[in-house]
Sequence to fold (348 residues):
Amino acid sequence: MRDRLEELRRRALERIADADAGALDELHGALLGRSGELTALLRGLGGLPAEERPLVGRLANEVKSAIQEALEARRDELRRAALEADLAGAGLDPTLPGAGRPPGAAHPVLAVARELQDLFRSLGFVVWEGPEVETEEHNFDALNIPPDHPARDVQDTIWLVDEPGRPRLCLRTHTSPVQVRALRELGAPLQVVAPGRVFRQEAQDATHEHSFHQMEGLVVDRGIGVPHMLHAMSVLLEHVFGRRIETRLRPGFFPFVEPGFELDARCPFCRAGCRVCKGSCWVELMPGGLVHPHVLEAAGVDSEEYSGFAFGLGLSRIAMLKWGIDDIRWMMSGDLRFLGQFPAQAGR
Ligand SMILES: [Zn+2]
Fold:
């Protein structure tokens, strides 16, 4: 019985190795089918002495597996050969290496945002995100910008089509509404940064774009004053640029802070004025100030007990200064000739 099984295996494997696709199907039936050779052999198993049955049974299973594997392997081989013949007929060589993918890199804005998020997390801040489609209330009212306030015109807001009975919606013009959202959700005391995209109806030029990126910073606690704000701003700038940046502070007006400031950086592109600094040799970098009591109250925070500072950081502008990019329109261009210039390690 064992000899017959071994003999069957030898013959079967030989025939399979030479078979074409049609012959393989026939072989499958002739060997393993209901009236196949192996099946017939196995029927004789019952006639063997009891002590031989387990050994012969195991061998029979081995033979069956070997035949099944050989059938499968031969089928794969034939399939691959047919495919290669097809490709060769079409003039393709499947053994040539592929086109490959160049390694990706983070967009300069994303690289700056990640770096700053890491920095602020290490200082105990939480990172919070708000929606890009924002309610009029969050974007303006809660930030002390009433309906008749000229700031609403200044920002040239992109409004969504009104739906009767629903709050008016706009594309957020700044990341400041996240101040309100974070304060309402997390309460005071609070240290939060909120990176994100903002939208303005701008005439585009080297420094103005309809979409750009900001990072809002907010600290609310007892006894917070201007020195805290100045310290945070200088830590941030030194970290981002890895060198001292010459800055100046001047009064600035934003309805949601009092007092308000503008932090400018010395233009890195010129000594005597250029299109980026519009001839002034200074680039607006970071507006900020002490959070207006109306904003704290609108977010449900007691302005008698708490005070805070907030700043808005232009992520696009920081990236421009950091890498010497002299036109903001590159940022949203999606142009690989531009994006390919940033090192992969700026990503992660
Ligand atoms: Zn300049």
User: Anything to note?
Assistant: Residues 267, 269-270, 273-274, 276-277, 281 surround zinc ion (CB under 6 Å). The chain has two domains: 2-89, 108-346. The domain at 108-346 is CATH 3.30.930.10 (BirA Bifunctional Protein; domain 2). The beta strands are 126-127, 133-135, 169-171, 190-199, 211-221, 247-251, 257-266, 282-291, 307-314.
